[in-house]
């Protein structure tokens, strides 16, 4: 029996049934084709568009200023953001990553370097304010082939565990050798109190410092 149209009780003819089926099928196919074309069009445009040439060099930082820094006996002329710290300039611009970024607030000592012979927290200093000053980092006091006595003592006394604070600890310890610090362990601990070791290797660090002091 032919189906009955709900609005028209008269039976639909075979031609009407076929026409409706064909219409719905074609309408659905057209919708799919339209959606596919919408997605494919931008992809095709991208494929046909000429590839942009890669920049030959990184874009300059807006507002960058020239700075001349003396680091480990070498002179570096670089362009830096006026707000860049000595720490970030050492790590990001000069690729001297031995100096570590810990708290970035001058509280942990991981970023300790020497500025004109004195130990400082490099995260608190603007690079633009220290042009032509003598900066020494952990890379400048010894090499794997020829360790500084303090570096050798840290190895000998197991003065490190994870090692993250070690460069700052050693830089402070080397500066301490020229400072008026008492001979006892308590005085050494007080002098190094600005350098935090989260692993708790303090007894070994003090032992390393005292070993070098006794060598003098």
TrEMBL record:
Full protein name: Xanthine dehydrogenase YagT iron-sulfur-binding subunit
Metal-binding found in the keyword field: yes
Phylogenetic lineage: Bacteria, Pseudomonadati, Acidobacteriota, Terriglobia, Terriglobales
Organism: Bryocella elongata
Domain 2Fe-2S ferredoxin-type: 65-141
Cited Pfam families: Fer2, Fer2_2
CDD domains per the UniProt record, alphabetical: fer2
GO cellular component: periplasmic space
InterPro entries: 2Fe-2S-bd, 2Fe-2S-bd_dom_sf, 2Fe-2S_ferredoxin-like_sf, 2Fe-2S_ferredoxin-type, 2Fe2S_fd_BS, Aldehyde_Oxdr_Iron-Sulfur, Beta-grasp_dom_sf, TAT_signal
GO molecular function list: 2 iron, 2 sulfur cluster binding; metal ion binding; oxidoreductase activity, acting on the aldehyde or oxo group of donors
Annotated keywords: 2Fe-2S, Iron, Iron-sulfur, Metal-binding, Oxidoreductase
Domain of life: Bacteria
């Amino acid at each position: 029996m032919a189906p009955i149209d709900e609005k028209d009780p008269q039976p639909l003819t075979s031609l009407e049934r076929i026409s409706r089926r064909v219409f719905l099928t074609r309408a659905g196919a057209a919708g799919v084709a339209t959606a596919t074309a919408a997605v494919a069009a931008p992809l095709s445009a991208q494929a046909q568009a000429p590839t942009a040439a890669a920049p030959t060099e990184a874009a300059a930082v807006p507002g960058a200023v020239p700075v001349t820094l003396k680091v480990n006996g070498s002179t570096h002329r670089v362009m830096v953001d006026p707000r860049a710290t000595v720490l970030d300039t050492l790590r990001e611009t000069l690729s001297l990553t031995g100096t570590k970024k810990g708290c970035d607030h001058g509280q942990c000592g991981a970023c300790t370097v020497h500025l004109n012979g004195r130990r400082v927290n490099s995260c608190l200093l603007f690079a633009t304010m220290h042009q032509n000053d003598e900066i020494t980092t952990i890379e400048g006091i010894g090499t794997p082939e020829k360790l500084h006595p303090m570096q050798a003592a840290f190895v000998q006394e197991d003065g490190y565990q994870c090692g993250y604070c070690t460069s700052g600890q050693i830089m402070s310890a080397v500066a301490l050798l020229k400072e008026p610090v008492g001979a006892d362990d308590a005085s050494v601990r007080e002098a190094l109190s600005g350098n935090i070791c989260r692993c708790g290797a303090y007894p070994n660090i003090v032992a390393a410092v005292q070993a070098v002091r006794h060598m003098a």
